[in-house]
Write a structure and sequence with these properties.
One of its GO terms (biological process) is transmembrane transport. The chain is of the alpha/beta class. It has helices spanning 18-26, 31-48, 50-63, 84-133, 137-142, 145-187, 189-196, 198-236, 238-243, 247-299, 312-353, 419-426, 449-454, 470-475, 484-493, 497-502, 520-532, 550-565, 599-605, 608-624, and strands at 379-386, 396-403, 408-413, 434-439, 442-443, 456-459, 538-542, 568-572, 584-589, 592-597. It has 3 domains: 18-353, ABC transporter type 1, transmembrane domain (ABC transporter transmembrane region fold, Up-down Bundle); 376-455 and 540-546 and 567-625, Rossmann fold (3-Layer(aba) Sandwich), CATH 3.40.50; 461-536, 3-Layer(aba) Sandwich (Rossmann fold). Bound molecules: adenosine-5'-triphosphate. Residues 141, 388, 390-391, 395, 413, 415-421 line the site of adenosine-5'-triphosphate (ATP).
């Protein structure tokens, strides 16, 4: 079963024709490939049908003494009835020419469909990824990362078979049916009408199946997403799994999710496999009935409701065409199955791309394009209240404070008090429910996200590092646009330069997945270097030195003091010595500010802060005793 806590990715509000919408949105630039492919496939199928027609005409010319009537060819080219060998060679050459056109048309169609498929998939993949990374953070609170990855990977790959194979198969089916009907009508229009009467039966049968298969395909993709999400979290937390010998538990969870996926797939296949034999049965019955009518007509005369004559040379190709129709009908169920599966994938991709994004400003090389640049970095919270979408209580309630330009403010409070939430609101990662947050007097809702965030250097509690070199991770803070010397300077400020030079490959050392080849303290300091490398106007350190010993922390603070001196800085810390020298300290409790002042003022006030301080001093005394 799917994890109930995570929302389903499928966008049920999506258009009824999500695949058509994808082609319209992303396929326009390559529509000439699509047109070329459809045209080649149509020519291939239509011309390919001429061989049987030619053979039928040859039969009547050779055995029934009828003239060789070949439409579109000048009479002077056509052999007369007195030249049977020439007739045979002539028709044989035409059949070879028809097959050559068919082979060439088929190759051209395959090539063009392939190019179109790869180009449109590239655009969808890149756009879907970009849309995903611009979704608001609460989207990722509500959906599992593995599920989103499954949409960006599995579901987009699923579309490959739609663009590269299914469109061509559909064209083939349509053209085959149209061509067969045209050729059959030319041979005998009355028998062709009889064959057409099978159409409504087949249409009703297949629409019944597709209506039932579609929700089952949605279920398949949902279960696949859930399985992927589980695989991702299990492997992501492999260290914890091993430490708690949780392998058997993880195995059971994956086994159960895989079983759910197999069941969902089985439910949809079980229905789909009945479709092909039923189509075949209807087509076979019609073929037999046509054969019976045709034989009776040739031997006895026209049956009731039929008039005129029918020759063997007409009936034989007619039956060949009917047989050729049954082939696409046999494939119709596979095409419908593939189509519903691709439609389910498209709805999930739509679930990623269609929704509220962060309103990113045009990606500009400099902030001047956006019309706003943070200058004084004066930050003000006014009566800010915020609930997480899945939280019962507000994480922040009626919070008001102002940080003057160049000031350092410390934020302390018990775990879960709302400290990190406050800075996430300042970064615009979430939007407050009530109240306003301003920078330099401008509501941050009106400041383009890119401009806002490029003005803020942020070190969060995770100190997440990318699986790349130390240099890459530090330079990331400035979009990679910094010199090696700037990277080293940032590392010095963060007190990690010496540690880096002692690594095997210095700044070129690969830090491993999430930086696991480094110590927690090294990771935090590299994250600080990343935050300061671009010389941001505002610096936010959220538990940025919690893994660093107090001596190293003091060194970092001394080194950062120059940097911090002329910029607005917000330091969140549990260790109160970290914020002791701040210009102002805010004490948060249960989402509200309960005390504010300098270290000395708060000690004198003798409230929550003083109690916390005394406890920490007591711990320090106990440890040194
Ligand atoms: N993404 C989230 N979705 C739902 N609730 C959240 C989310 N992040 C935090 N919360 C809740 O919001 C409240 C405030 O969390 P926050 O992380 O701001 O606290 P904090 O003071 O920074 O805690 P700590 O010192 O432990 O980091 C907590 O009750 C927490 O459970």
């Amino acid at each position: 079963m799917m994890d109930e806590a995570a929302a389903d990715l499928t966008n049920d509000a999506s258009t009824d024709y999500p695949l058509l919408e994808l082609v319209r949105q992303y396929g326009r630039a390559d529509s000439h490939y699509l047109m070329g492919a459809v045209g080649s496939a149509a020519v291939k199928s239509f011309i390919g049908f001429a061989d049987v027609f030619l053979i039928g005409i040859a039969i009547d010319a050779l055995f029934n003494d009828q003239p060789l009537a070949l439409p579109l060819l000048p009479d002077a080219w056509i052999p007369t009835a007195t030249e049977p060998l020439l007739t045979l060679v002539f028709v044989g050459t035409l059949v070879i020419a028809v097959n050559a056109v068919t082979v060439f048309g088929g190759a051209l169609a395959e090539f063009s469909f392939g190019v179109f498929a790869q180009r449109i998939l590239h655009r969808i993949r890149v756009h879907a990824f970009d849309a995903a990374q611009h979704r608001r953070l609460d989207y990722f609170d509500a959906h599992r990362t593995g599920d989103v990855m499954s949409a960006l990977n599995d579901d987009i790959n699923q579309l490959e078979s739609f663009f590269a194979v299914l469109i061509s198969a559909t064209v083939w089916i349509v053209v085959t049916l149209v061509a067969a009907i045209v050729y059959m009508s030319v041979l005998n229009w009355q028998l062709a009408v009889f064959v057409l009467l099978s159409g409504p039966f087949i249409a009703v049968l297949n629409s019944w199946f597709s209506r039932r298969i579609e929700p089952l395909q949605d279920g398949v993709r949902r279960e696949r997403g859930a399985l992927n999400a589980l695989l991702e979290t299990s492997l992501d937390g492999i260290g914890v799994v091993k430490a708690f010998t949780g392998e058997a538990h993880e195995y059971d969870r994956v086994e159960s999710a895989s079983r759910d996926h197999v069941r969902a797939r089985f439910r949809s296949r079980r229905l789909a496999v009945r479709q092909a034999p039923l189509n075949r049965l209807v087509a076979g019955m019609w073929l037999l009935a046509t054969l019976a009518i045709g034989v009776y007509w040739i031997l006895v005369g026209p049956p009731v409701l039929f008039t005129g004559s029918l020759t063997t040379g007409e009936l034989v190709p007619f039956l060949f065409y009917m047989e050729r129709i049954t082939l696409p009908l046999k494939n119709l169920s596979g095409v419908i199955d593939g189509y519903t599966s691709a439609k389910a994938a498209a709805k999930r991709i739509d679930g990623v791309t269609d929704g509220e994004s962060e309103g990113e400003c045009e990606i500009a090389d400099d902030t001047s394009n956006s019309g706003f640049a943070v200058e004084n970095s004066h930050v003000c919270f006014e009566n800010v209240t915020f609930h997480y979408s899945n939280g019962a209580q507000p994480a922040i309630e009626s919070v008001s404070f102002a940080v003057e330009s160049g000031e350092t403010v410390g934020v302390v409070g018990a775990t879960g008090a709302g400290k990190s939430t406050a800075v996430k609101l300042l970064l615009g990662l979430y939007d407050s429910d009530d109240g306003t947050i301003t920078i330099d007097g401008e509501d941050i809702r009106n400041v383009p996200v890119r401009c806002l965030r490029s003005a803020i250097g942020y070190v969060n509690q995770d100190a997440f590092l990318f699986n790349d070199t130390v240099r890459y991770n530090i330079a990331y803070g400035a979009d990679g646009a910094v010199s090696d010397e700037q990277v080293r300077e940032a590392a010095r400020l963060a007190g990690v330069h010496d540690d880096i030079t002692e690594l095997l490959r210095g700044y070129d050392t690969e830090v491993g997945e999430r930086g696991t080849s480094l110590s927690g303290g090294q990771r935090q300091r590299i994250a600080i270097a990343r935050a300061v490398v671009d010389d941001p106007e505002i610096l936010i350190l959220d538990e940025a030195t919690s893994h660093v010993d107090t001596k190293t922390e003091r060194i970092i603070q001394d080194q950062l003091s120059d940097l911090v001196a002329d910029r607005t800085t917000c330091v969140i810390a549990h260790r109160l010595s970290t914020v002791r020298t701040a210009d102002r300290i805010l004490v948060l409790d249960d989402g509200e500010i309960v005390e504010r002042g300098t270290h000395e003022e708060l000690l004198e006030y003798d409230g929550t802060y003083a109690t916390l301080w005394n406890v920490q001093i007591g711990i320090a005394d106990a440890s040194t005793a």
